[in-house]
UniProtKB/TrEMBL annotation:
Keyword terms of this UniProt record: Repeat
Domain of life: Eukaryota
One GO BP: pseudouridine synthesis
InterPro entries, sorted: PPR_rpt, PsdUridine_synth_cat_dom_sf, PsdUridine_synth_RsuA/RluA, TPR-like_helical_dom_sf
Pfam annotation, one family: PseudoU_synth_2
Protein name stated in the entry: Pseudouridine synthase RsuA/RluA-like domain-containing protein
Organism: Alexandrium monilatum
PPR repeat extents: 76-110, 148-182
GO molecular function: pseudouridine synthase activity; RNA binding
Domain Pseudouridine synthase RsuA/RluA-like per the UniProt entry, residue ranges: 447-610
Length: 714
């Protein structure tokens, strides 16, 4: 009918078709135009390729590009860029390289869009050196890049995102010589890169340059600088720079003022109340607030005493209405904030759970890098953890998440694990030589290791201590078990133990096992039980749970005398207790306690017991020097021993590993006298090398008044 009427079908019509009916309808329309004799144009071809790319397709755009000559069309650079964009969305690096090589042979000159798309793909693959090599080795692309500030912004962002922030500084310095003026985007990328690489001095200096040049820093720039100041305890500088940037008219979200104050430890006072009021007024007035801003605003509210319930309601309403636009990271942060607020908004948490499953099912990258999958795992299990902590986690959701995560782990394992017979670990099962780690339980894809006191599980705490990861690599050669050398996945360790503590550590041999166990940990399916000796006679019936947020304050402005503290800025933390015995030694009273942690914050048991007035024995960080010195005369190290782990294997069968008290702790316990017959009866099995089974109450635990730190809404 169009041909008979003499109408001309153009790119507008094709674009409308793509927007209304999807990329398949756009392709069908393009085919109809060809057979009707109306003569498709290059613009129509570009729109169709773009529609396919927007729909997640990459093969169809390449097929259309290859069929252009059959349509008697001469593709332009817009056609090539549309195909590049489609391949970039699907992380098809080989196809991008092929397109870049063929473009000059077809007489096409790559432009700034080509450069940005190609460098952006390098960034998503974690290959910033490839991005720079791409600019240097492709003359046409390099020429286009040299004339475009956009291309340079992209190159700076690629380098900064992968730790090459010094190279980014050099690129920034080269821009004026090429007649280009650095813009706010370039500065933002570099500031964020400096902050991630702990180059906080450079981050502060760059933000100062940004404001001096009359540029308006973005929210991400301010967040990076504030985070750098918080890490380096330069909170006054952070507050000053944030205030100056806000006064300069920086284009920041409504969350940034309150978030900056909360990040730098300012949670009370007129400034906080003003920031809360400002955020509420702007939300009430209909101010735009993207999902990331809503999540960060909710996080900031979780640190404010007596949180404003009206502002929280506004945040919840906005989030429910825009839940489709949230990324996995935004969902995780928002769910965590709701739990920290003590405000389990059921309708929002249900929407978060549904969106989590949708996002996981829709994730379909053919060759995602390990860092991308590690981030996805962290965000997905973060949502599961929050729902479990709020006691609304359903078994159906856990299974849906598991069915999405396990194939990702199997993809990372590759054929060396799933393509043949698994290689067993090289160590015999049993306690290791004195002072050395040993294997307690060895399954084909996961194992339990016993850590002696003085060993570290990762590299975050004490560089002088021997690293358990090196011992694990000795048991699991990386050529067979690549997870054992992957820092993004914590070398396969599922949790940690403080250096002075001892006990069981669960580790995965395969990525699939790691993803499965991380989900178990977040869903509360993994038991971690400890034997602890602490000061004072803890009431047997007055305290069975400590619910108090723990904040790791070492190196931040909140640090006072202790590495971890109890404060509103902390992460939700729950410890369960069962007093086994009261004992004495030379006028000192002690309690022997079984502990089960629901959460796993750093130094959680130590700081929780100190918080309720019962610091652990021989703890130089959380008790006075006099007490710790007295303890050290009869107890060799901190008396915390993880004696039991329980978890599921790949076939969902329950396994349990136990570890008796090490000889040095058993010897210390032998020096104590029981207060009564009941205490003596409880201690006897532990001195005989046994680990008695505990029955933990599932509902209605008693809470000592000082042990409950649940935030209350106004």
């Amino acid at each position: 009918a169009l041909r008979l009427s003499g109408a001309r079908l153009d790119a507008v019509a094709c674009g409308a078709a793509a927007g209304g009916g999807g990329w398949r309808f756009s392709l069908a329309l393009l085919g109809a135009v060809r057979w009707s004799g109306l003569g498709p144009s290059v613009i129509m071809l570009n729109v169709a390729i773009g529609a396919c790319g927007g729909g997640g397709e990459w093969r169809q755009p390449l097929a259309l590009l290859g069929a252009a000559r059959h349509l008697r069309l001469r593709p332009d650079m817009g056609t090539c860029n549309a195909a590049l964009g489609a391949c970039r969305r699907r992380l098809r690096w080989a196809e991008v390289q092929q397109l870049l090589e063929e473009a000059p042979r077809s007489g096409l000159r790559p432009d700034a869009i080509t450069c940005s798309a190609s460098a952006g793909l390098c960034s998503s693959r974690g290959a910033w050196r490839e991005a720079l090599r791409l600019l240097e080795e492709t003359p046409q692309l390099g020429a286009a890049a040299s004339r475009s500030a956009v291309a340079w912004d992209t190159a700076i962002g690629v380098c900064s995102s992968r730790g090459g922030w010094r190279r980014s500084l050099r690129l920034l310095g080269e821009m004026p010589a090429r007649g280009l003026r650095p813009d706010a985007i370039a500065f933002a990328s570099l500031v964020i890169g400096c902050q991630r690489a702990h180059g906080w001095d450079a981050a502060l200096l760059l933000l100062g340059w940004t404001t001096c040049r009359g540029l308006r820093p973005e929210a991400s720039t301010l967040q990076a600088v504030v985070s750098a100041c918080e890490r380096r305890r330069r909170w006054e500088a952070g507050l000053s720079l944030a205030s100056r940037a806000l006064r300069s008219g920086a284009e920041c979200g409504l969350h940034i003022h309150l978030w900056s104050l909360a990040k730098l430890g300012v949670t009370e006072g007129e400034a906080v109340q003003g920031a809360v009021q400002e955020a509420g007024e702007r939300l009430e007035a209909g101010c735009q607030c993207p999902p990331r801003d809503l999540s960060l605003l909710a996080w900031a509210l979780s640190s404010v005493p007596n949180c404003d319930s009206e502002l929280l309601r506004l945040v919840v309403d906005r989030a429910v209405g825009s839940i489709e636009d949230f990324t996995l990271q935004d969902l995780s942060l928002l769910a965590w904030a709701l739990v920290a607020l003590g405000a389990p908004e059921r309708r929002l948490l249900d929407a978060i759970a549904s969106r989590l499953v949708e996002k996981l099912r829709a994730f379909d990258a053919p060759s995602p890098p390990r860092s991308v999958l590690a981030g996805l795992l962290l965000d997905a299990t973060g949502v599961v953890w929050a729902l479990n902590f709020a006691s609304i986690l359903g078994g159906g959701l856990v299974e849906s998440v598991r069915s999405a995560l396990l194939p990702m782990g199997a993809f990372l394992d590759g054929p060396q694990v799933w393509g043949g017979v698994p290689t067993p670990s090289a160590a015999p099962v049993g306690r290791g030589p004195r002072g050395e780690p040993g294997v307690v339980l060895d399954l084909w894809d996961r194992l339990v290791v016993e850590k002696p006191a003085g060993w570290q599980v990762d590299t975050d705490e004490d560089a002088a201590a021997p690293a358990l990861s090196r011992r694990l690599r000795g048991l699991l050669p990386p050529r067979h078990w690549p997870l054992a050398r992957d820092l993004d996945h914590h070398y396969g360790f599922l949790h940690r133990l403080d250096v002075p503590g001892s006990g069981l550590i669960l580790a995965a041999k395969t990525y699939a096992a790691y993803y499965d166990l991380r989900l178990q940990l977040s869903a509360g399916e993994l038991d971690r039980d400890y034997a602890v000796l602490c000061h004072g006679w803890m009431p047997r019936r007055g305290l069975s749970r400590i619910n108090a947020p723990v904040h790791w304050s070492a190196g931040s402005l909140w640090q006072a005398s202790y590495p971890s503290t109890i404060c509103r800025q902390g992460r939700p933390s729950l410890t369960r207790l069962k007093v086994l015995a009261h004992v004495v030694r030379g006028g000192w009273a002690f309690s022997f306690v079984a502990v089960r942690i629901v959460t796993g914050r750093r130094h959680q048991i130590r700081v929780h017991l100190m918080h309720v007035g019962h610091p652990t024995v021989c703890d130089s960080k959380y008790s006075s020097a006099a007490i710790a010195g007295s303890d050290s005369t009869w107890c060799p190290h901190n008396f915390i021993h993880r004696y039991r782990l329980a978890f599921l294997d790949a076939k969902q069968r329950r396994h349990e590993a136990r570890s008796a008290l090490p000889q040095d702790l058993a010897g210390a316990l032998e020096q104590l006298c029981s207060r009564d017959a009941r205490s003596e009866e409880q201690i006897r099995p532990w001195l005989q090398g046994s680990c008695p089974t505990m029955k933990w109450r599932q509902r209605g635990p008693r809470v000592h008044p000082c042990a409950d730190f649940t935030p209350k809404k106004k």
